[in-house]
Q: What sequence folds into this?
């Protein structure tokens, strides 16, 4: 399995605040599932992080990605398609960034094991997306395993590019960056990379 599709799900959601949270619910659930298995092994202290907005990294290398697509179902509801892809036994060679797989870091399960673990944490985290307090808990949990907080990053979205220090994610799960002029910018989507490094670390 070079890239194992972990899960695909379709939902109909009416609250846009819930939609914004779902990718982060998936990210936190996946982090919990992977962290629990890998770092439960004796002597394992792998650095497992979430990269805004949709990647899971191990030791700085991309291991999984989350894709969220939205479609207008009715005038007041969106259809959400959520997909999670994880490198379990192998990893594709990508010129733009480094990759790795779970097995290389001591993961002893297979796709079914990971799916069961992910489903367990998803069932715990998904209901949080339906309240403001719950979404704040998701946000706090995501920040607790985020990569790059306080570091200088760049975010590119089309022809627009923002550089600065990664401060936090806000209540809408936008990336908040403090620029050199002292102003803060809130970015809803984009390609993130480290300043001073030619290697892209999220896409």
A:
């Amino acid at each position: 399995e070079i890239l194992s599709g972990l899960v695909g799900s379709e939902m109909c959601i009416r609250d846009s605040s819930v939609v914004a949270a779902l990718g982060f619910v998936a990210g936190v659930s996946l982090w919990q599932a992977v962290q629990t298995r890998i770092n439960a092994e004796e002597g394992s202290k792998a650095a497992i992080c979430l990269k805004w907005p949709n990647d899971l990294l191990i030791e700085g290398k991309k291991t999984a990605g989350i894709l969220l697509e939205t479609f207008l179902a009715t005038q007041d509801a969106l259809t959400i398609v959520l997909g999670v892809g994880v490198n379990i036994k192998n990893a594709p060679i990508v010129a733009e960034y480094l990759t790795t797989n779970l097995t290389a870091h001591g993961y002893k399960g297979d796709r079914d094991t990971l799916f069961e673990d992910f489903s367990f944490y998803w069932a715990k985290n998904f209901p949080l997306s339906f309240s403001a307090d719950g979404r704040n808990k998701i946000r706090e949990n995501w920040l607790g395993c985020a990569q790059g907080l306080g570091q200088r990053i760049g975010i590119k979205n089309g022809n627009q590019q923002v550089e600065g220090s990664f401060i936090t994610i806000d209540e809408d799960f936008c990336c908040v960056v403090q620029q050199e002029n002292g102003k803060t910018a809130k970015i809803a989507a984009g390609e993130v990379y480290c300043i001073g490094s030619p290697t892209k670390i999220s896409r």
